Amino acid sequence: MVDQDFLKTYQMEIASGRGFQKELSTDTNAYLINEEAARQLGLKNPVGSLMKMPAIYRGPAPIIGVVKDFHFRSLHEKIAPLFFIIETTFFTELAVRIRTTETEKTIEGLRKKWAGIEPQNPFTYNFFDEGFNRLYISETRTASIVRIFSILAIFIACLGLLGLATHSTQQRVKEIGIRKVLGASIGSIVTLLSKDFLKLVLIAALIAFPVSWWAMNNWLSEFAYRINIQWWVFLIAGGIALIIALATVSFQAIKAAIVNPVKSLRSE
Question: Which of 254, 265, 255 shows the shortest CA–CA distance to 177?
């Protein structure tokens, strides 16, 4: 139940026909429907067709326009059929589009206007985006939890890699010294020390990718409208994991590679 300014206020688009107009008194006995309603009613040319809604005590009335489909529920649900009628005696809320640059000033002005119209009722308000965001509270919380635990997991993994790299380097101190004496470059030594760890990261990624794909698809299946997970997402994730691992291991590997080989071989 709306008024003639509803579509304009919410910037909804007309697919065919027209919207309600204040100049036409006959619009108080007319319907607007959305595209999904037209599809479910089987109306190829709905404008001009008569529709009856006994549930709201309305007799047959013409459909004057079709509104393009829009999401008025969570994306977990498919777009449902919707109809609009003029019913000024049933309003419980007033929607106002405001400039966000002067929000507080505008709200104060609305408060004063309201006091002049309905002084016996308190002025309360909420923002449309706040109500919309409440539809996705669980997703927002899940995202925050996943983000925190991902950071913790990366941090712990990096500590583990650093410890393994340090231990491996200490075990191969003399080997590194001999290689440097024989002319090995710092780059080749860093590659030698790093490749074994990078192999472990690749194996871990191969195990993680199918599990991640299965978990994400299960989660996305709860939405009526969803994206398809692309292969390049896993490629980017694997690349980032390799970069983080390489940065962690290379720190210790470079440190070992630049040590004077004389110190490494002194006891030989």
Answer: 265
Residue 81 burial (10 A CB sphere; 0-12, 13-18, 19+): middle
Tens digits of residue pLDDT in 14-55: 999 999 999 998 888 899 999 999 999 999 899 999 988 776
For residue range 224-262, list pLDDT tens digits in order: 888 888 989 999 998 988 888 888 887 777 777 676 665
Distance, CA of 177 to CA of 188 (rounded, Å): 13
Task: Give phi and psi for 31, each to the nearest 5.
Answer: -125, 145
Long-range CB pairs of 48-55 (<8 Å, 24+ gap) are 51/83, 53/83, 53/85
Element (H, E) at 53: strand 50-53
Residue type, 80: A
Integer angstrom CA distances of residue 100 from 5, 104, 142 = 20, 9, 29
Amino acid letter, residue 87: E
Map out the domains of the chain as residue ranges.
6-92, 136-264
Structure tokens at 48: 């001009």
Strands 83-84 and 31-34 turn out to be antiparallel
Instruction: Quote the CA–CA distance of 193 and 191 in Å, as a whole number.
Output: 6
Copy the structure tokens of residue 26: 């006959």
pLDDT per residue as tens digits for the range 183-194: 777 777 777 778
> H/E element holding 33?
strand 31-34
End-to-end C-alpha distance for the chain, whole angstroms: 91
CB 28 within 8 A of CB 90: no
